[in-house]
## 1
Amino acid sequence: MPTIHWDEAFCGEGANCFRIGTDDADNAYIAVLGQEDTPLTDTREALRNLILDIKAGKADHLL
C-alpha cells in the first residue's frame, strides 16, 4: 500500500468520524477513523465531486 498522508478526522453527530487522505500519486482515500488500513480509494477529482455532491444534498436519501 502506498504511503497515505491523512488529514485530521472529521466527526459528525454521534461520533461518525472519517478521514481523508492523499498519496504522492494523486490518489484520494477516505476511511472510517480507526480503519485507515482498509480505505476506499479513487482519484482526487472523484473524491472532490463526491464531497461537493454530499454538500449539495444529493446523498440525503442515503442517510
Note: The longest strand covers residues 17-22.
## 2
Amino acid sequence: MLALRGGGSEALIPPEVLAGMIRHLEAAWPQEGCGVILRSGEGEGSSWRVVPLENASPTPRVAYAFAPEAWLQVCLDADVRQEEVACVFHSHVDAPAVFSAEDRRQAAPSGIPLLPQVSYVVVAIRGGRASSASRSVWRAGDFQTVPLALADFRFEKPV
C-alpha cells in the first residue's frame, strides 16, 4: 500500500485503488492521463475512489489540465459524499516521473499551494506501460518528491 497525504494526515491507499489509477493512465497513452483519488472516512474504515478525468490541455501529450466544469463537479460530488481529495495524479508520456517545473507552477501559482494537504503522483508511461512513479507533497515551503516502487501499484484482485 502507498501512504498519501490528504486532509492533513497520512493514509494508506489500497493497492487495488492504485491499480485503477495506473490502468487509467496507461489507457490514456499516448497522451497524459489525469485524475484524482478521493477518500472518505478515517483509518481502517476509509473508503477510496479513483476519479479519472479527461485531459483538457490544448497540448495533452506534454501537459494535463482539468476542465473547470469537470473539477467543479468532482468537488461538488465529493462534498455530497463527504469525501476529500487525497491525491491528484497524472502521467508523463515517454518522460521521467518527476514533478516538473510546470507541475509545480500549476500546483502552487506564485509559490502558494492550491491544495497544500494533497499528494501529487506522477507516473511515467512508456510505450503504454507504467515504468516509474513519484509522489510530491508540500512541506516546509516547497514540494518534496520521493520515488515510488511500481510494485505497490501492480496489485490485481484474483478472479
Note: The chain has a mean pLDDT of 87.
## 3
Amino acid sequence: MIQKPSNAFVGASWVALLAGMVAYNIGLWNATMQLNEKGYYFTILLYGLFAAVSLQKTVRDQLEGIPVTNIYYGLCWFATLSAVLLLSVGLWNAGLTLSEKGFYAMSFMLSLFAAIAVQKNTRDSRLVGNEPTTASEPPFNNLS
C-alpha cells in the first residue's frame, strides 16, 4: 500500500536537494580551478542527478510490475555508478585540499539522494491522488 508522503518529508527532500545543488555550485563558482574543470564537475552533477532519478524510476517500475527493458535497467545502473566513479576519479586527481574534495563528494551524494527522494515523493503523491491526471493521460503511465 502506497501512502502519501508527509509534508515534512516532501519539504525536507526539496531542501536537501536544493542545499546539495546550491552548495556544490557555489563551491564550483568560488573554486580557483580552470573553467574546463568547473564544467566537468558541473556536468557530472547534472549527469548524476538524471541517472539517479532514472534508476529510481526503473526500480520502482519493476517493483510495481510495469515493464522495463533489461537494457534500460542496466543502462540506468551503469549511468549512476559511472557518475559516482567519474566524480571520484576527478576528485582523486584534482589538486584540491582534502576538505574541498570531501565537500564536493558530500554535496554530490546529498544531491543524488535528495533527487531520488523528491522523485519518490512526486510519484507517491500522484499515485495516492494528490495530483490529478488529465483525461488524456492514463493514471499509471509516465509518472515522474
Note: The chain has one domain: 7-126.
## 4
Amino acid sequence: MAVKKVALACTVCGSRNYTISENNQRTERLEVKKFCKHCGKHTLHKETR
C-alpha cells in the first residue's frame, strides 16, 4: 500500500513547496513556518488535501 502525501502551501503566494505524509491521527490541518523560495522569506505554510 502506498503512502498518501499532502502538500504544504504558502499562505502568501499559494505555491505548494513541500510534501509530507498524511497522518490520520491529526484532526486539524498542520500549519508551520517554512522558507518559500518564491517569496524569498519564511512564511506560514498550511496543509492542503
Note: The chain has one domain: 5-48.
